[in-house]
Design goal:
Number of helices: 4
Helix content: 10-25%
Mean pLDDT: 82
Order of helices and strands: EEEEEEHHEEEEEEEEHH
Largest sheet: 8 strands, mixed
Strand content: 25-35%
Low-confidence stretches: 173-191, 300-307
Structural class: alpha+beta
Distance between the termini: 57 Å
Radius of gyration: 28 Å
Shape: flat
């Protein structure tokens, strides 16, 4: 579906007009769109195809250096599915090897696999109720990373994670559980302790009785929302979409391998070295694993701290 994408650029001194062209991933070169005397233009673009627009000023004799304005198509399920089909050259819509519904399942599996390594980081603020120790978060939470308790005096107590062993819900006296730290800003900086938290089945659990109308700031890692419609934009970073495609391609190749198993010859050792699809799926999964390692091992800039 075509949408309008506004191109804006700075006016060039001496220019009498501007020529607008574009190029996309087809490799067919630039295509001239129009010539205008304005410094903006609403271009019609296919929302699923990346393009680069080139705006060249014209002074009546020569065209100037182009201003490049990129259009990045939103990362939708349709775009990812098309990338998978491009990888397998599965483009004949009258005879797809993998139907859309099947590829959608592999995309969802790839998103969940990606979330295990690179979960979505979120923050949520809950309001406490008097003596209530259980608070619902979300079922999509992978892990809770930090819980901050902020009271009416704006004192932050950072709770420590501790797996429940039983009996924590019976604790009623905060003073008997001086376990965790609080940092008070100002000249009278102090540190005192409050309690622990655990996370189970989408619930945040406390081992102390909180006061009413105070805050629990929860930082947590979450699974990504799975796309239920083709046009829904994914939360996956654009530079990591390759990992989604690689893992989904591996799953797609595995399905074909299973179908081929009844046709391939088995040798005496039970191996099927003559089936290239086995090696193909392995290459995709290995490429995914290597991509994860590369991202985890990339250098990070360290902030110098005072000791």
């Amino acid at each position: 579906m075509d949408i309008l994408f506004r191109l804006d650029w700075e006016a060039v001194s001496g220019a009498v007009s501007y020529r607008i062209s574009f190029a996309d991933a087809t490799g067919t070169g630039e295509t001239v769109v129009t010539t205008t005397t304005s410094t903006y233009y609403d271009a019609a673009v296919d929302e699923l195809i990346d393009k680069a627009f080139f705006v060249r000023s014209y002074d009546g004799t020569y065209y100037g250096t182009p201003v490049v304005i990129p259009y990045y198509a939103p990362l939708t399920r349709t775009k990812v599915r098309n990338m998978i089909r491009e990888e397998f050259q599965d483009k004949d819509s009258t005879a797809y090897t993998w139907e859309d519904a099947e590829l959608n399942q592999y995309i969802e599996a790839a998103i969940d696999k990606y979330a295990i390594h690179f979960p979505l980081k979120k923050e949520l603020t809950l309001t406490t109720s008097l003596n209530v120790k259980t608070y619902k978060i979300y079922d999509t939470v992978v892990a809770v990373n930090r819980v901050e308790y902020i009271d009416d005096d704006n004192i932050s107590r950072y709770l420590l994670y501790k797996p429940w062993k039983g009996g924590e819900e019976l604790i009623a006296d905060n003073d008997s559980y001086w376990k965790l730290g609080v940092y008070r800003n100002g000249p009278s900086r102090t540190r005192q302790f409050l309690g622990h938290y655990d996370f189970s089945k989408g619930n945040l659990l406390l081992d102390f009785n909180p006061s009413a109308n105070e805050s629990l700031v929860v930082r947590y890692a979450s699974y990504y929302v799975k796309p239920r419609f083709d046009a829904v934009q994914l939360d996956i970073p654009e530079h990591d979409i390759e990992l989604i495609v690689l893992y989904a391609c591996g799953k797609a190749a595995v399905r074909v391998e299973k179908q081929d198993a009844t046709l391939s010859r088995w040798d005496e050792t039970g191996r099927r070295d003559d089936n290239p699809l086995i090696k193909l799926s392995t290459r995709y999964f290995n490429a995914f694993d290597q991509g994860v390692k590369d991202r985890l091992n990339k250098p990070h800039f360290m902030r110098r701290t005072r000791v």
